[in-house]
């Protein structure tokens, strides 16, 4: 079948289903309407006390049944909700998905109030005997089962009938993109005809806020939450913690065409490069990010002048935005001044493990709808960052190809190249 192989002779990987949940709402329709209208999902935190915290705002998802039941429960519901929408759109509604599952999710931890509750649930004297009794209790064993790193993917595999051992991964802020990459490569290697890739994160907890605050990574613009995330602006002061999920049904183009599926886009290339400079900071010369972008372009078989739009990592931290501009200007040269480069995080915040998947979903929708979402809160441009950030208002444009960047803490850099249709 002509056109079903890429420039390296591998199966072309199509997207046949998309699902999204963010602080803007549930489903592609509501998210897209909010995103293109420039609406922010950032708001004051009400889920837990924020007294004495430096940051008291987030993009929490507060409208699901498990929103107040802990990170593990919420991450599962976010993943399940997005996956159900994607699989329904792709036409897999019988609970028997004939492909593997790749899940990007955060390491799940018990909330402190649950730990104290367990410790106080037994009558043993203080000390190791009490801890042993707690550890042997059935309640603790149940919590252990749900808090294991792979437990969410196991439940999703049972729910949707995916094949093989589900894979759970965590590559910091690049996790969602890495999950997509693993699905793409499984199809390219001929190991599967289709796969479902999910990024989900419901871990906006008090502990997370404290940890990121200690790294001076979070915005403290508490008085005006909707204006707090301002990527590429001169007065940016950190990212806004958020929650969300996205799922993509990936399928060989040949398989999708054979069953008459609607092609929503193509995953053309994936590139990754580690950065060992610092635990949280990027290498000042941007070389790992530059290498990841170049690797994605080479994998897609595209020149730098064949990319129409960049969905930026754009976290709103002083260092990341500067480094991303450096990497893009190095790869694209002077053209980067006129190429649209916008950041969804200006509206939905930073969804951590889910970010790469959510932004891939929005990139695919950008190409299908012919509309580029804006970077809102761009009221004070940084003269050192010369980018067309699609400031404050959406833009209608023909977009045939997108580069979506994910540059994570710990040096995890993953870039995806997507196309509107097979080349």
Distance between the termini: 14 Å
Report Rg: 21 Å
Instruction: Look at the structure and name the CATH superfamily of the largest domain.
Output: Thiolase/Chalcone synthase
Helix proportion range: 25-40%
Mean pLDDT: 93
Principal-axis shape:
globular
Number of spatially distinct domains: 2
Largest sheet: 11 strands, mixed
How would you spell out the order of helices and strands?
A: EEHEEHEHHHHEHEHEHEHEHEHHEEEE
Give the low-confidence spans: none
What's the CATH class label of the largest domain?
Alpha Beta
Beta content: 15-25%
Which CATH architecture of the largest domain would you pick? 3-Layer(aba) Sandwich
The structural class is alpha/beta
Number of strands: 15
Q: In DSSP terms, counting alpha (H) and pi (I) runs of 4 or more, how many helices?
A: 13
As for the CATH topology of the largest domain, it is Peroxisomal Thiolase, Chain A, domain 1
InterPro entries: Beta-ketoacyl_synthase, Ketoacyl_synth_AS, Ketoacyl_synth_C, Ketoacyl_synth_N, PKS_Beta-ketoAc_synthase_dom, Thiolase-like
Pfam family, one: ketoacyl-synt
Protein name: 3-oxoacyl-[acyl-carrier-protein] synthase II
GO biological process, one term: fatty acid biosynthetic process
């Amino acid at each position: 079948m002509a056109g079903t192989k890429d420039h390296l002779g591998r199966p072309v990987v199509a997207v046949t289903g998309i699902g999204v949940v963010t602080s803007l709402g549930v489903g592609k329709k509501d998210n897209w309407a909010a995103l293109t209208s420039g609406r922010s999902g950032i708001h004051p935190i009400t889920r837990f006390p924020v007294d004495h915290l430096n940051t008291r705002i987030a993009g929490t998802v507060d409208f699901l049944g498990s929103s107040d039941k802990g990170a593990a429960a919420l991450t599962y519901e976010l993943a399940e909700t997005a996956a159900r929408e994607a699989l329904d759109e792709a036409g897999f509604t019988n609970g028997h998905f004939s492909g593997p599952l790749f899940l990007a999710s955060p390491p799940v931890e018990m909330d402190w109030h649950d730990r104290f509750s367990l410790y106080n649930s037994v009558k043993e004297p203080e000390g190791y005997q009490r801890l042993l009794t707690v550890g042997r209790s059935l309640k603790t064993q149940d919590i252990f089962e749900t808090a294991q790193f792979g437990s969410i993917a196991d439940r999703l595999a049972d729910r949707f009938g995916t094949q093989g051992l589900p894979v759970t991964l965590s590559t910091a802020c690049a996790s969602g993109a890495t999950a997509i990459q693993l699905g793409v490569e499984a199809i390219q290697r001929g190991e599967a005809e289709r796969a479902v890739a999910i990024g989900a994160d419901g871990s906006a907890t008090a502990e997370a806020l404290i940890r990121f605050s200690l790294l001076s990574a979070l915005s403290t613009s508490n008085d005006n939450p909707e204006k707090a995330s301002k990527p590429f602006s001169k007065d940016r002061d950190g990212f806004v913690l958020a929650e969300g999920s996205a799922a993509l049904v990936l399928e060989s183009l040949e398989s999708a065409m054979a069953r008459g599926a609607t092609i929503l886009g193509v995953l053309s290339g994936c590139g990754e490069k580690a950065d060992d400079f610092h635990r949280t900071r990027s290498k000042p010369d941007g070389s790992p990010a530059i290498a990841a972008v170049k690797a994605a372009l080479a994998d897609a078989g595209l020149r730098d002048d064949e990319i129409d739009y960049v969905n930026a990592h754009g976290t709103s931290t002083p260092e990341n935005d500067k480094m991303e501009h450096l990497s893009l200007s190095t790869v694209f040269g002077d053209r980067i001044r006129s190429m649209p480069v916008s950041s969804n995080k200006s509206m939905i915040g930073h969804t951590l493990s889910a970010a790469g998947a959510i932004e891939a979903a929005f990139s695919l929708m950008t190409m299908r709808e012919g509309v580029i979402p804006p970077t809102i809160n761009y009221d004070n441009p940084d003269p050192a960052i010369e980018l067309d950030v699609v400031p404050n208002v959406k833009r209608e444009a023909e977009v045939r190809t997108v580069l979506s960047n994910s540059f994570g803490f710990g040096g995890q850099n993953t870039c995806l190249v997507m196309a509107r249709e097979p080349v």
